[in-house]
Design brief:
Layout lengths: L6 E7 L8 H16 L4 E8 L10 H11 L5 E4 L2 H4 L3 H14 L2 E4 L9 H12 L4 H18 L22 H15 L4 H11 L12 H9 L6 E4 L2 E5 L8 H16 L14 E3 L6 E4 L6 E4 L12 E3 H16 L4 H6 L6 H25 L5 H26 L11 H10 L2 H11 E6 L14 E5 L2
Parallel strand pairs: 1-2, 1-3, 3-4, 7-11
Antiparallel strand pairs: 5-6, 8-9, 9-10, 11-12
Helix pairs in contact: 4-5, 7-10, 7-13, 8-9, 11-15, 13-14
The chain binds zinc ion.
The site of zinc ion has 9 residues, from loops.
């Protein structure tokens, strides 16, 4: 590749539909980037706007460039595509002659066609003759235009109306935006996509598109889209802020994705169907206990691994251990904050739901810190410092929740355990699981002593997070 000390960039657009000169701007940008990549010095940029290379009308900048080439002021020409230069074969021949005489290379962004050799010349001639191939080149330009749209945070043209927004894809459709907010906060608070779909159907929320009812497949794309956080995505990449308003905050999006990821890691919904799935360990071998068995004799049991890393010799009755865990959880919930977390069943007040999510988030943070300390990733001092911050955030989140619910969980603890129990039973399983996970790190189940049929509490060695 020859060195260019005085490259010329030529750009032209035949009909500048946007009226913003974007077409030319794009061509210039790409040509400049190509020049930079090759360490070429750009001496001049020649721009003709709104003049067709077909029409035969004079193009002032093009003519000026030819003069500069002939005068030896240019040693290379950069153009986005050959059809920007000319579409008339006769004109192309003239251009080639001028460039050949002046020993000037012509390079295009799209095809990297050099006119400096025979092959390049041939390709250039064919390209020029193939005015019929316009559509292909147009699609490349349209793609480029779409990318630029995306970079500017603008929506795609065409396609279906995104849920939560009007047909212009920018203006909020309030009633749908509210639904999205609810969905996001409930999801963060631990409800599954499946539960959310059922909730939407129960509430009679209109389904987007032509689908008869809400499904996980309708809910998921809405929830995990960057769009609802006001982020412009292009081909799966997040490019930056969009011009439309966000429905959920960036922080909420992070939480939402974290929840989604941890659920996906868990291997889908099946694994998480039971209250204590993943939370029980075998007291013989340390293996995780898996749920098994028909409804009347459900159990959590150690599964024999093919590599003998687990024993497969221990199980516990599911109903009994779940009953014990729920009761123990309720006792632990009888503590500041957790009371209102439990009592505050899902409401349509999205601010309230957001505050519950904040409390849960703060509690998760505390748990994570404890885990990091346990895993040796944090020193005692680091843990103490981080925990102080997290604990303050926790208290603050609880205060916010208090203000919203009008309860005073920080002053007086609700002593009515029966009410708590009833509240617990009214929660759906995903929410119960979410609460259980914030409370119980894990429980080790020890082997059953001979002769006992009842659940012996000494078999259970629970490790609570708070
Ligand atoms: Zn075992």
């Amino acid at each position: 590749m020859k060195q260019a000390n005085a490259a010329a960039i030529y750009a032209r657009i035949s009909s500048d539909q946007s009226g913003e000169g974007l077409g030319v701007q794009r061509q210039l940008e790409d040509c400049r980037r190509l020049a930079a990549e090759r360490h070429w010095v750009v001496a001049a940029e020649y721009v003709d706007n709104d003049i067709s290379a077909y029409s035969g009308k004079t193009r002032p900048s093009y003519e000026r460039m030819l003069i500069d080439i002939e005068a030896g002021r240019v040693d290379a020409v950069l153009v986005y595509h050959l059809d920007r230069l000319t579409r008339r074969p006769a004109e192309l021949e003239h251009f080639i002659d001028v460039c050949t005489d002046a020993r000037v290379d012509v390079t295009t962004v799209t095809g990297d066609i050099g006119l400096g050799n025979d092959n390049g010349l041939m390709i250039a001639r064919i390209t020029s003759a193939m005015a019929a191939a316009e559509s292909g080149r147009k699609s490349a330009r349209i793609k480029r235009k779409m990318l630029q749209n995306a970079q500017m945070g603008k929506p795609n043209s065409g396609g279906a109306r995104p849920y939560g927004y009007e047909n212009d894809k920018v203006t909020l459709r309030e009633e749908e935006a509210r639904v999205i907010r609810d969905l996001a906060l409930r999801y963060i608070a631990g409800e599954s996509m499946n539960t959310l779909a059922r909730w939407l159907n129960r509430e009679g929320i209109p389904v987007p598109g032509k689908a008869p009812s809400w499904h996980v497949q309708t809910v998921r794309p809405i929830l995990i889209s960057a769009r609802i956080a006001g982020i412009r995505e292009y081909e799966g990449r997040e490019l930056g802020p969009a011009i439309w308003p966000a429905i959920i905050s960036l922080d909420e999006r992070r939480q939402l994705l974290a929840v989604h990821q941890s659920k996906s890691r868990g291997g889908g919904t099946k694994k998480n169907r039971y209250l204590l799935s993943g939370l029980l360990r075998c007291g013989r071998c340390g293996g995780v206990l898996f749920h098994s068995g028909p409804p009347n004799i459900r159990r959590y049991q150690c599964q024999l691994a093919t590599d003998d890393s687990t024993c497969g010799r221990l199980y516990i009755n599911a109903l009994k251990i779940e009953g014990w865990a729920a009761a123990a959880a309720i006792m632990r919930l009888d503590a500041p904050g957790m009371t209102s977390l439990l009592a505050a069943r899902v409401t349509d007040d999205d601010r309230h739901t957001a505050q519950i999510a904040d409390v849960m988030k703060a509690e998760r943070a505390l748990t994570e810190l404890a885990e990091m300390l346990g895993a040796g990733e944090l020193s005692r001092a680091e843990y103490a410092a981080a925990r102080k911050v997290a604990a303050e955030r926790h208290v603050e989140a609880l205060r916010e929740l208090d203000r919203a619910t009008g309860t005073h969980v920080l002053d007086g603890i609700d002593p009515d355990r029966a009410a708590l129990t009833r509240s617990w039973e009214r929660l759906d399983l995903p929410r119960q699981r979410a609460i259980m996970r914030t409370l119980l790190e894990y429980a080790i189940i020890h082997p059953r002593p001979r002769g006992t049929r009842k659940l012996d509490p000494t078999r259970i060695e629970a490790r609570w997070t708070v």
